Amino acid sequence: MIEHLQSRLNPHAPAVLSVFRMVFGLLFTLNGTVKLFGWPVGRATAVGDWPFWWAGLIELIAGLLILVGLFTPVAALIAAGEMAVAYFWLHQPNALWPVDPENGGEFAILYCFGFLLLAFAGPGAWALDAVRSRPRAGVRTEAV
């Protein structure tokens, strides 16, 4: 039964991976816009304020790249690294377990591992990376 279900789901994996990437990229981008501009909710961080303004800049740029699927593996690795640093610098010193209200690092861990998945699994079928890697019509790709 599981094999039958898996065989029915497998053809849709590239599209679902793309949707996962787009949702993750959009949410990460919004985290950056909140830190940088105070949009759509909250207050902006002062320009250059360490580490939050810089984290917002990484979140905005990496989030947009991941959202559209451009340079996805690199952007996802940078985003995963930022989330690992956020967890160990800001959350873990407050309490050992991520589910502890004093720690509050569940989202940082989820983002970190979600971005690691994207770095290794790729951007999915609907990505600018996929368009960039296709050979262009009328363009010779072999050496002269």
Net shape: globular
- Indicate the percent of residues in helices: 55-70%
Order of helices and strands: HHHHHH
**Alpha plus pi helix count:** 6
List the helices and strands and how they pair.
Blueprint: H1 2-9, H2 13-37, H3 52-68, H4 72-91, H5 106-121, H6 128-133
Provide a descriptive summary of the structure in words.
With 144 residues, the chain is mainly alpha-helical. It has helices at 2-9, 13-37, 52-68, 72-91, 106-121, 128-133. Helix 2 (13-37) crosses helix 5. The longest helix is centred in the N-terminal third of the chain and has 25 residues, at 13-37. 25% of the residues are buried. The mean pLDDT is 93.
Summarize the structure.
With 144 residues, the chain is an all-alpha fold. 64% of the residues lie in helices and 0% in strands.
List keywords for this structure.
single chain; 144 residues; mainly alpha; 0% strand
